[in-house]
């Protein structure tokens, strides 16, 4: 479950929801002495009532669900939207001359368009109103005026391919971020019209859904991804039809009847497509490579309902020579879903977002965008002093266009961002600078190119001190564990300042006399921007920077 989800700390409280919404939900909630309140997820009416209740209670959206169309599970769909928020937030734009800080493609919103909107239209007596939004992030406290006062110039547009009758991603996206706008497509005219009725519902007026969401009816033979002057979107979303045939769908339904899985009711068009979801997403991949589309969208994304589709989609990406992709896994109770994102642009995602630690995905992960070292413990060295040494090394290169050192409040972690416009880390470049310095002349600084060669995020934090192994066997086992941890952990430990505190190690503990005990420091260099052909250059640059830090520590 995504940590920002309103359901991250606890699942929905069915008893409390039944009490708050007696007309809508109470009759579907069963109470037992052993397991408390529950809902029969095999009852389509119950799941539909629950989805409507959660949308209203937690997101301030009134959305009546049709009984002949797919009913979206809200926690799962919210996970996808929140993950896409992270993708846009972690897509760091290249530093430009005069920049004082690195900025994301779209920072996480500190305001929610949903907050306060659930009680916006008291004149609608037929709509039950919640007393408050439950379990939302504490920092998200805004009123409905957030969306009403949002300027168009501050917005981003998302393309939802196959939006369905609920237009669920548009509803959640607009509720969670007042800057989001949507283009929603579907080939089902009835679904489009029902989605339109949700957008224009008087209870949703405060969210301005009717003006923020554009619905487009498409024909099956038309491309999935539109082209033209209005085709630019920061990202796409999609929940493709799972099945390749009615027989496959029936087989899945028979299997689900053996356990407590939720009922799945929808039209054939929503659930079946030739070749199944892997063929559908494969078609999106092919279209994304075409001129006029690759440059119009930063991140193409899609959800996947079957694990077998993940490998097939990754193979398709690799066949198209797309190496810049990310995977994630959504877990909600007994249900697992996956999502894939890919880009033809130069934004690079950190490993903790693009390379999940699930062992089942190890063989299909993209290449790592980070390099790391653990520097041995030394007196008077902290993550801040180590980062200062790294910043000095970057500054001496002369070819660094801009360095942004993130502000820090303590010595536990330190982060900086840098832009390089030439291979200034190579030995030849260093020798040329040393020669120029000896001769009393300066090298010409490179002009700012349209795009940098590389952009980096460098971070340092305390690493766990290690004890010496007692035997060769223990040493070997420790090394094996470290090797595995190195594959999974570096980027997770490379959070920028202000990130989750559990990504930082504890500061050095003071000795008996009050001086801090020396501890090792982990340094991570992440690739944040650059085209794929510069991957080797990133590796060489990162290794050079880390090696020089190691040499400097040894000399110290």
UniProtKB/TrEMBL annotation:
Protein name listed in UniProt: S-adenosyl-L-methionine dependent methyltransferase
SUPFAM superfamilies tied to this protein: S-adenosyl-L-methionine-dependent methyltransferases
Biased composition (Basic and acidic residues): 126-144
Region ranges (Disordered): 113-151, 467-520
InterPro entries the UniProt entry points to: METTL16/RlmF (IPR010286), SAM-dependent_MTases_sf (IPR029063)
Gene Ontology CC annotations of this record: nucleus
Native organism: Tilletiopsis washingtonensis
GO molecular function annotations of the record: methyltransferase activity
GO biological process: one example: rRNA base methylation
Transferase listed as a keyword: yes
Keywords associated with the record: Methyltransferase, Transferase
Alphabetical list of Pfam families matching this protein: Methyltransf_10
Taxonomic superkingdom: Eukaryota
Biased composition, class Low complexity, residue ranges: 488-497
Entry keyword annotation includes Transferase: yes
């Amino acid at each position: 479950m995504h940590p920002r989800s309103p359901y991250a700390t606890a699942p929905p409280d069915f008893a409390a929801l039944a009490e708050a919404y007696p007309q809508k939900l109470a009759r579907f909630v069963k109470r037992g002495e052993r397991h408390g309140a529950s809902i029969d997820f095999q009852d389509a009416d119950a799941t539909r009532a629950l989805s409507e209740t959660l949308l209203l209670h937690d997101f301030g959206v009134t959305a009546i669900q049709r009984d002949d169309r797919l009913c979206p599970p809200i926690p799962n769909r919210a996970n996808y939207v929140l993950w896409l928020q992270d993708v846009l937030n972690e897509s760091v734009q290249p530093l430009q001359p005069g920049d004082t800080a690195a900025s994301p493609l779209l920072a996480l919103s500190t305001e929610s368009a949903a907050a306060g909107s659930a009680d916006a239209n008291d004149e609608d007596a037929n709509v039950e109103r919640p007393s408050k939004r439950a379990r939302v992030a504490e920092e998200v406290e805004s009123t409905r005026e957030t969306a009403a006062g949002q300027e168009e110039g501050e917005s981003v547009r998302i393309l939802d391919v196959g939006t369905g009758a609920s237009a669920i991603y548009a509803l959640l996206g607009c509720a969670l971020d007042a800057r989001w706008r949507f283009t929603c497509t579907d080939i089902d005219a009835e679904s489009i019209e029902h989605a339109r009725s949700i957008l224009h519902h008087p209870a949703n007026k405060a969210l301005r859904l009717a003006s923020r969401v554009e619905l487009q009816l498409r024909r099956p033979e038309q491309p999935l991804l539109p082209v033209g002057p209005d085709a630019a979107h920061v990202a796409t979303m999609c929940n493709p039809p799972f099945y390749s045939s009615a027989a496959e769908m029936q087989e899945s339904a028979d299997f689900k009847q053996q356990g407590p899985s939720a009922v799945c009711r929808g039209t054939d068009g929503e659930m079946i497509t030739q070749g199944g979801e892997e063929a559908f997403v494969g078609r999106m991949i092919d279209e994304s490579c075409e001129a006029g589309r690759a440059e119009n969208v930063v991140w193409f994304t899609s959800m996947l309902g079957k694990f077998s589709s993940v490998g097939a989609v990754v193979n398709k990406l690799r066949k198209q020579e797309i190496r810049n992709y990310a995977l994630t896994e959504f877990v909600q109770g007994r249900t697992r879903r996956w999502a894939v994102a890919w880009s033809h642009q130069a934004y690079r995602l950190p490993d903790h977002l693009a390379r999940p630690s699930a062992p089942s995905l190890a063989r299909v992960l993209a290449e790592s965008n980070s390099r790391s070292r653990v520097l041995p413990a030394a007196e008077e060295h902290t993550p801040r002093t180590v980062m200062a040494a790294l910043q000095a090394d970057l500054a001496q290169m002369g070819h660094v266009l801009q360095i942004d050192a993130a502000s820090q409040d303590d010595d536990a972690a330190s982060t900086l961002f840098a832009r390089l416009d030439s291979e200034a880390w190579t030995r030849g470049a260093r020798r040329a600078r040393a020669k120029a310095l000896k001769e009393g002349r300066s090298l010409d600084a490179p002009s700012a190119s349209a795009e940098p060669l590389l952009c980096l995020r460098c971070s340092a934090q305390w690493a766990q001190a290690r004890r010496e192994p007692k035997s060769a066997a223990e040493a070997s086992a420790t090394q094996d564990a470290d090797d595995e941890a190195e594959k999974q952990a570096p980027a997770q430990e490379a959070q920028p300042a202000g990130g989750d505190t559990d990504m930082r190690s504890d500061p050095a503990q003071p000795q008996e006399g009050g001086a801090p005990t020396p501890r090792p420091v982990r340094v991570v260099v992440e690739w944040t921007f650059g085209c794929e052909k510069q991957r080797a250059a990133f590796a060489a640059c990162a290794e050079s920077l880390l090696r020089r830090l190691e040499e400097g520590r040894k000399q110290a």
